[in-house]
């Protein structure tokens, strides 16, 4: 079954701003939360669908990718934020100030809370990569450096100076969250004393400022496949941030490479096909002949110009286009002819063209004759 449109799920227009998105999400979330529909087996699925829609549209980069490519932009799971790389956020913390979908938000409707989160997955990262059209044609292995969060080697990821004690936070009792009552809602927020960790470090690590992690420039080799298109996303599993040790040390996050292809000076691309425009001398267009055309693989192809060719005529070179992703096939190249009018004529050339005109040269130009025949009929109709 195909996915529903995210804007339709939230009930907003495609030009809705962040405030309208947030307002629509809050309203819909309160209406369709599973705790309010205990007898509806589809309630949880609808709520997850709503959460997914807001998760994409509330992020500018992910929203731009969705507007451009639809659901295909996120086929392999997980959206990305902006910048060279970015951590993923918690939607429910942003909107309701609480914990995750299965805890803090449920408590808004009187549901049971959960204990302090013990295992977290490392954050996913995003990296923007720009390549040439030639690289996209051939494929290429590219070395990059990405700032990735790793456990601090001074404190071994604990966030405390060696020998310093780690104590349970007295404000939240180690839960990492505190609750406040607002009307019939119970709101959960990260504990401001311990920053949601549930623990208090008496002497924070001087190297990582008590975070337990530091970002390190990490060299990675990325293989760009032949035929890759602008906007393609490549996922490197397990190459994102390390999971915080103090939160249980779960799986590493993933690294997502977003590929953009630079505009080319000669070729324009449409899928696997290439388009270019070549100038053709007037004499070659009139008499027929050949012109030499560059190809994306660095070679040259001879293009036969039929006698009497006109500007705008499009000709095809089969198999001279882009590589097709995960295939040995290639697209085609389409060449548009642009017939050039001679300029800066010398005396002999001018005399020859004048003689050509006296011999009725203008009368053998089919487009001109057709146009002026129609113009003559137009003027005659005006007179009548």
Automatic annotation (TrEMBL):
Record gene name: dnaJ
Swiss-Prot/TrEMBL domain comment: The J domain is necessary and sufficient to stimulate DnaK ATPase activity. Zinc center 1 plays an important role in the autonomous, DnaK-independent chaperone activity of DnaJ. Zinc center 2 is essential for interaction with DnaK and for DnaJ activity.
CXXCXGXG motif repeats: from-to residues: 152-159, 169-176, 191-198, 205-212
Species in which this protein is naturally found: Litorimonas taeanensis
First-listed, main subcellular location of the protein, grouped into a coarse class: cytoplasm
Similarity section: Belongs to the DnaJ family.
Positions of Zn(2+) 1 binding: 152, 155, 205, 208
Residue ranges occupied by any CR-type domain in the UniProt entry: 139-217
Job of this protein: Participates actively in the response to hyperosmotic and heat shock by preventing the aggregation of stress-denatured proteins and by disaggregating proteins, also in an autonomous, DnaK-independent fashion. Unfolded proteins bind initially to DnaJ; upon interaction with the DnaJ-bound protein, DnaK hydrolyzes its bound ATP, resulting in the formation of a stable complex. GrpE releases ADP from DnaK; ATP binding to DnaK triggers the release of the substrate protein, thus completing the reaction cycle.
Keyword Transmembrane helix: no
GO MF, any single term: zinc ion binding
Zinc finger feature spans (CR-type): 139-217
GO CC terms of this entry: cytoplasm
Designated name of the protein: Chaperone protein DnaJ
Cellular location(s): Cytoplasm
InterPro entries found in the cross-reference section: DnaJ, DnaJ_C, DnaJ_domain, HSP40/DnaJ_pept-bd, HSP_DnaJ_Cys-rich_dom, HSP_DnaJ_Cys-rich_dom_sf, J_dom_sf
Domain annotation J: ranges: 5-70
Quaternary structure note: Homodimer.
Cofactor: Zn(2+)
SMART domains hit by this protein: DnaJ (SM00271)
Keyword tRNA processing recorded: no
Gene Ontology biological process: DNA replication; protein refolding; response to heat
PANTHER family reported for this sequence: CHAPERONE PROTEIN DNAJ, DNAJ HOMOLOG 1, MITOCHONDRIAL-RELATED
